[in-house]
Amino acid sequence: MTRITLALSVALALASLGLAGQVRESPAPGDWRTFAGSWSAVGQRHTLPTEGGRPSAIVQLSGTVLLTGGEGLSRGFRGEVIGFDDGGSLSTGRAVWTDERGDRIFSVLKGEAVETGRRIAGTITGGTGRYAGLIGEYAFTWQYVLAAEDTVIQGRAADLTVRVRQGEVRQ
User: Fold this and answer.
1) 18-29: per-residue pLDDT in tens?
2) In contact, 123 and 149? CB cutoff 8 Å
3) Quick count: other Cβ atoms within 10 Å of Cβ 91?
4) How far is the C-alpha of 101 from the C-alpha of 157, rounded, in Å?
5) pLDDT tens by residue, 47-89
């Protein structure tokens, strides 16, 4: 009986060592984490004519940001944006993503004009609550942008890519 018990103990120990190698640990605080996702938004656009024929615009959009993959971020956020399109080649703005707890991720946006097929890049500059000190970047291409009425605009980005890590928490 003693040999059987010893053999079983050794077998269990070896099996647990094999399983321990397969268990995925959460990323360390300084490690980069990547996510994919989509962003759908609707809001207001106000335009001003320019000498080039293409109007400059300010936009205020809000909608749903959905993320997949990675660990450490919520899977869903309310994304809000205020941006400026100069009527030429520059778009810039600010965004905030708010999760179900009310914790926020802040970012700065830069990119091409707000139109279908145009690329936008975001730099994550920090957050609140569990996202305090978060840094990173994201990018997306507008899958479509529709102007439903004079001032109503909606869009969707299906190729959102996000890369984040925990930076220093500033007091």
Assistant:
1) 333 332 333 455
2) no
3) 21
4) 24
5) 999 888 888 999 999 999 999 987 888 899 999 999 999 888 7
Domain borders along the chain are: 27-166
Reduced to 3 states (helix: H, G, I; strand: E, B; else coil), residue 8 is: helix
Q: Which two tokens stand for residue 170?
A: 């500033």
The DSSP 8-state label assigned to residue 89 in this structure reads S
SS3 assignment for 14-28: HHHHHHHHHCCCCCC
CATH 2.40.10.10 fits 27-166, yes or no: no
Dihedral sign for Cα atoms in the order 162, 166, 170, 171: positive
Length of the chain (residues): 171
> Average of pLDDT values for 89-105?
94
The two tokens of residue 146 are 């529709």
Look-up: residue for tokens 């999760």?
99
